[in-house]
Amino acid sequence: MTTRKTPRSPLAGTPSLLRAINDRAALELLLANGPLSRTQIGSLTGLSKPTASQLLARLEAVGLVVPVGTTAGGPGPNAQLYQVNPAAGYVAGVAVTSTTVRVAVADVTGTTLAEHRVPTKGWPAAETVHRVAEAVAETVRRAQLAPDCLREVVVGIGGAPDPATGKLRYASHLPGWHSPRLVEELELALGAPVSIENDVNLAAVAEQAGGAAAGCEDFVLLWAEEGIGAAIVIAGRLHRGFTGGAGEVGYMPLPDAPVSLGSRRKVSGGFQDLVGEPAVLALARRHGLPGADGAQAVAGALETDGGGPFLTELAERLALGLAVIASVVDPELVVLSGRTPTAGGERLRELVQEALGRMSIPRPEVRLSAVPGSPVLTGALQRALASTRDVLFSTH
């Protein structure tokens, strides 16, 4: 004998869940559109005026919104305006290189309150965590905030945490950052949750949030400075790979740049040997161009009548690596970032676009980075803000 199961009706949202959804929608609108009145929030969300009033009262009571003046100039009485409370939470971003640590602190609205830069020359490896904590504490002090105010710290670094061991991979150039308990040690020193992310991935986060890749869900960011790296975004999400090493294209084998594995498993060759900073400087010297670093050599070539052949060869080298990446990923867009391509400006971008069109069947559009300042630091703040808002704005 079989028994017939009665179909279950779908569960309706509970009143508290629906309130939480409305709260989150209102907070996102306030972040995107600035101060809004009760009527404006009701109009944008479809909520009635009484419901919008209750929502604002609820959010004000828990410190997520604050009144900030009134409307003026309308036919009726002035209406109270509200905005997200900047003091609801604070975050920090940290960008680490082999020579500096840069820190920025922002409030939950995304306003940067203070930045601080510390040279790392002479840092003992054993004191790295302590020195980073000092740099963050100094930035918080400059922002005139309480020492324990941070809700999230995101560190951008030239490597990738191994998801299995927690150790930092691809970062032999950064002594002091290889403890398997690195995250726990940083959290203890900073007094806040910490996450570590590949620096080029964070540059891609910044471009997607408000830079050259805004509104694009499938793109590749190529970073070229002293070293070479890439970030891959598929369907709007970063692709990290099984070990966190997706985008580590510096040692990608290419024609005229094979990879060799020497003694002690030291790797050389690949894309790095074509467009890494030492290769760019060597290419510039071959064309009779000066420059203390890759960016200076490229910028100087733009101002020199004889710089054209150098820029053309550099563009073809960049396009060669991009053609390999594009043939696998087929992105809608390629973003050129880092000091070297940024110094080349629109002229180098056009040369890369033209060369890529000759080498690759997929022909994605090539754009220059549109994030001012440090894309890595900006991306670290964006990632920290997203995490903090998820917690703060979840009122259910």
TrEMBL record:
Residue stretches making up the HTH marR-type domain: 26-66
CDD domains, A to Z: HTH_ARSR
Signal sequence coordinates: none
The family this protein is said to belong to: Belongs to the ROK (NagC/XylR) family.
Protein known as: ROK family transcriptional regulator
Species of origin: Kitasatospora phosalacinea
